[in-house]
């Protein structure tokens, strides 16, 4: 499965670069760039490049290999104590969020059901 995803992502990157090259070549080698036909061809090429580039970018984001700037990371999930909890006793520090198999935060209702199940077990 990993090889198939890598091959499809490689194909998407090559196609995106090809459409970007077509848009640049259209802009450089057209006699009058600001005609309706040339602008339409350029926009179609850029849209197709975006269409093919989205899949590999989302794959890299899901794998955690694409850093997203200006996005706050979950400090508690990283194991670092949150700001302002240094002086608090151990019992008053906020608990780390419960995560599912994919690393997403579990909703509060599911968290309460899990807590109820843990209480009933001997």
Protein model, in words:
Mean pLDDT is 82; it is low at 75-85. The protein has a domain at 2-63. The chain is mostly helical. The longest helix is centred in the first third of the chain and has 28 residues, at 2-29. It starts with a helix and ends with a helix. It is 57% helix and 0% strand. Helix 1 packs antiparallel against helix 2. The chain is elongated, with a radius of gyration of 24 Å.
Any descriptors?
122 residues; mainly alpha; 3 helices; 0% strand; elongated
Summary?
The protein is mostly helical. It has helices at 2-29, 36-63, 108-120.
Proportion of strand residues: under 5%
Q: In percent, how helical is the residue content? A: 55-70%
Q: With helices defined by DSSP (H or I, 4 residues minimum), what is the helix count?
A: 3
Q: Structural class of the secondary structure composition? A: mainly alpha
Total count of strands = 0
Write down the secondary-structure element order.
HHH
Intertermini distance: 42 Å
Q: Please tell me how large the radius of gyration is.
A: 24 Å
Uncertain runs with pLDDT below 50, 5 residues or more?
A: 75-85
Q: How would you characterize the largest beta sheet?
A: none
The shape is elongated
Mean pLDDT: 82
Compile the SSE list and pairings.
Elements: H1 2-29, H2 36-63, H3 108-120
